[in-house]
Amino acid sequence: MLSGIIRESISKADVKALRKNGYLIANIYGKGRENIHCAFKRNDFIREVRNKTDLIFKIQVGSKEYPVVIQEYQKDPITNDIIHVDLMLAQEGIEAKYSVKVKIVGTAKGLKNKGVLMLSKKRIKVKAAPENLPKNYEIDVTNLDVGDVILIRDLPQNNGVKIVERNDVAIVGVIKSR
């Protein structure tokens, strides 16, 4: 489990000192909760995020554990290093917006007919409580031929999960190659 430290001061000088020592600055927030200013070792955070299997993962800050979701992160424009991350608490029973991954399964038959598989959306925005959240949206593309497309409205409806994207947005399709 990823563990971090609580930042006592949020001044610019202290943030700079933490970054110099290899820390990633983070804020944890949730509905009806006070924000927690914290920091994690940058390499530990990246390793943890790469190895996580679910959207929600647990972290430890100080002596408390929190289930969180990465809401947003900022990168340095020159070095491309992550310099700040916003983590949202996944509070049971409280609906929030999440971005769920799309997972492609199978080989489209349109690829044999000189088609190219185009994945338009890698994530789908949903509104749900954490306990109802799907791990990912698995889409079978084996029956897609050239010109076929799978839209948001073609996804299965899960109980307690509301998709907040437009229905006519394409997720994946097979287009004719040039």
UniProtKB/TrEMBL annotation:
Tree of life domain: Bacteria
SUPFAM superfamilies with a match to the protein in the record: Ribosomal protein L25-like (SSF50715)
GO molecular function, one term: structural constituent of ribosome
Keyword Protease on entry: no
Domain Large ribosomal subunit protein bL25 beta: 97-177
UniProt-listed Gene3D superfamilies: Ribosomal protein L25, beta domain, Ribosomal Protein L25, Chain P
Assigned GO CC terms: cytosolic large ribosomal subunit
Keywords: Ribonucleoprotein, Ribosomal protein, RNA-binding, rRNA-binding
Pfam families from the UniProt entry: Ribosomal_L25p, Ribosomal_TL5_C
GO BP terms: translation
Domain Large ribosomal subunit protein bL25 L25: 3-87
Signal peptide: none
Keyword RNA-binding recorded: yes
UniProt cross-references to PANTHER family, sorted A to Z: RIBOSOMAL PROTEIN L25/GLN-TRNA SYNTHETASE, ANTI-CODON-BINDING DOMAIN-CONTAINING PROTEIN, RIBOSOMAL PROTEIN L25_GLN-TRNA SYNTHETASE, ANTI-CODON-BINDING DOMAIN-CONTAINING PROTEIN
Family per record: Belongs to the bacterial ribosomal protein bL25 family. CTC subfamily.
Function: This is one of the proteins that binds to the 5S RNA in the ribosome where it forms part of the central protuberance.
Cross-referenced NCBIfam families: bL25_bact_ctc, PRK05618.1-4
Protein name: Large ribosomal subunit protein bL25
Name of the coding gene: rplY
